[in-house]
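Listing 4. Sequential folding, example run.
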Amino acid sequence: MAAAQNLELISEHSCFGGVQRFYRHASREIGLPMRFALFLPPQATQAPVPLLIYLAGLTSTEETFPTKAGAQRVAAELGLALLAPDTSPRGAGLPGEQESWDFGEAASFYVDATEPPWSRHYRMESYLTHELIGLVVETQAVNGARMGIFGHSMGGHGALTLALRHPKLFKSVSAFAPICAPAQCPWGQKAFAGYLGGDTARWAAHDATALIGRRMDAAFPEGILIDQGLADKFLATELNPHLFESACARAGQPLTLRRHAGYDHGYYFISTFMADHLTHHARILRAGG
């Protein structure tokens, strides 16, 4: 009941027989108001449905996915709820928070910062795994035992690493053009140095390629799905899917990495293959009844 009282409905819109809602709440982990989007399919009026969490990329907000990805129609057919949180705290007022597009506001990298001043508010891993999911499960018609996670670019990094760090929480994972080895690319190095400090050994705990490299088994035996456009201007310098692919092969982690000629880094690419990702998650999340 307390969770429901903390939840403010900003707007709602009928959508493919279900409802697209936008919420705001006071976050205890972040210490600031946070926003998120939630799509409930028509099946949610009958019983709790599986929950699929989408993490967006740099410069995005909680509105980016529901307005650009074209996911609701297929999610309604498959009976999946879609949760899209904001990409960072807003309004923390920290020095340098808005000076660059790839660090600070809208660029949290979905980690719990350990370095001041970021450590006070930039606690996105704890926010997502310890607070937001619990809030949504408590107040909405979703099944907390059947959850998957996916994302794009920085959010693809977040989806892969959070899934690998919390394999009992998430049953399925996929990504579009993820930052696969952030400790080895400029985006990730800048973010990790700022949020986690200069000790690069600590970065490995938030690097999907390094996390897979520590394993000798399949964290997700049903497989991980990644789609990557070959016309993506960030592919060579920032994304490095081949490193994650090699690490998965060594660990015995099933991976489907699809490379698509002509596709870039944006939402035209994402929307093209969205149905495949939703089907991937639905197959796993609905298994067993």
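-- end of first protein; second protein begins --
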Amino acid sequence: MNILLELFVVTFRVLWAFVLAAAKWLVRPKEKSVAGQVCLITGAGSGLGRLFALEFARRRALLVLWDINTQSNEETAGMVRHIYREMAEAAAAAPRVPGDGEKDVLLHCNLQVYTYTCDVGKRENVYLTAERVRKEVGEVSVLVNNAGVVSGHHLLECPDELIERTMMVNCHAHFWTTKAFLPKMLEVNHGHIVTVASSLGLFSTAGVEDYCASKFGAVGFHESLSHELKAAEKDGIKTTLVCPYLVDTGMFRGCRIRKEIEPFLPPLKPEYCVKQAMRAILTDQPMICTPRLMYMVTFMKSILPFEAVVCMYRFLGADKCMYPFIAQRKQATNNNEAKNGI
């Protein structure tokens, strides 16, 4: 094709993409069904992972829960089973409507939840557990890479082992889980890979270098994977990148921005964050930043000189927002060491 003609076509497609994106703001896309599909969630024992599990359960997905903490993972499973029972009882009591496929899933499929104790920071553990899932449950259709950790130390005070741990869990684990379950998705051209990253994977702040690096890595991995699937013309495999602002799960307890700004940008409620993410996942939205202000912050960071960004950070109190959190973690560690006589 003549390069000028091709440039015209590309320009038209770019403009059309803007039109479609704007239309989605005005007309909410219909959510797809995940009823009966196998959904695997890492870090399902608490926080966002637990809430994702409950949301997928309400949509009749078959849940596979991974977490390093067996007890908390089983607690999540108990909540999921309770939702399954309630839905099954309601479906059994409701009048039969011909062609109600989702009700058929409840009446004729034995929706279950499967739990696995897995350290996603260890490659061998991921591959072995993935093989167990394939044998005991089946092929995974929806993969939610959610597990995450934070060290809570300034760079020069952070042990190398904790830096490596943060990178392994928050970034490298995405490689292992995706390599374990993507081949079947490619074979059938169907699936969905969700990367739960962070706004700190799009722009950074002081004091959490390892966390920011791991989330930047997760974002880069996700974007490259998305381009690879497009290049391979595997349009049946969807990807969604989730980048929330500070979420009130306790992971960053003590983090504070400027007190005058806090009322306008408070920590996100976990339930709100997950509901927004679920809407994006079920409408095949490629990326979701919560709140929407994060899109603007990311854009401004991309076009402004670095010193201008520093000025903005200082005005918002975002330059040292992690320092109170780090101080609390350090105090807790010292108290624990004193208590144990270390």
